[in-house]
Amino acid sequence: MKIDFHKVEKLLEPYKQIKKQTSEKKEEGVAKVIQYVWNHTPTKKVDFDSFNLNGGLRAFYEFYFLPHYDDEMTQADLVAIKDNLWEINAAWDDLIYSLTKCNNKVYENEDDFI
Amino acid sequence: MRMLLDAEEKYAYDESISNFLTLKIWHDLGVNVKEFPDYIVYPGGYDGSSLEILEAGLKALYPTFRQLDYEDEHKLETIAKESNISSTPERLYLLNNDKVQKLLDTGEIDKLKKPLSKLYGDLTEFDMSFHKEYGLVLAIYFTSVFFEAAEAVARITRLVEDLYIQIEGVTDNGLCYQAI
Lengths: 114, 180
Prior knowledge:
The structure holds 2 protein chains of 2 kinds. Chain A is an all-alpha fold. Chain A is built from 5 helices and no strands.
């Protein structure tokens, strides 16, 4: 049997998958970066392919522009903190912790005398 | 207000995230960073890990890595002067590999001088230049946020590789192209 490859190619054309070009400015994995750093994940366990550099840069500057405790803060600063990605991440962590805690799911170690 | 940290804690995190980004930049260049030091810097603690991460990446990319600091002050000053770096830096890294050396020998490196002069950091003070003998020279003025310097090195490394491939192509296929 002979296969006419030109014909096959033509027939397959409508099913061709076109790869979308991802723009370089896309910030991917900002949340990943924040979680890795906030949880102090050791370098060995970080998947460096799960985010791109722009996502990392976004996470950096988001933190960099936070005020610190010794700064004099205005009301606007306090409002701004609430929308900060790091603040949102920490708030989620706290929420999940409180949810697991209320069902007596945290096992306390009796030997823990500290 | 969970993210209202005191100043020292905040600066430690600034540095930690910068280290994390440095690891990402090295990873994107194909360096295996799994065995690199951890990126977290603790407030008031030993802060060597930032430099370690930067240097480990430079070593992986440029095997003939050499660093000069205040211990070899005289040499540092001379090399800085020879490579047209205006003020004396805290540290000087001499980075060289076969590709950079080849570009230096053929004089093609001049093509990279313009993009090199455009690299600068908002948070990190650094300077880069080419030296006839020592290859790529990276000067670091004192700071602890290094990811911008790493990014600049990454960009130059990629440019060097592109230019190297171009030149290799010409010398290998030059006659062939001309014949066509």
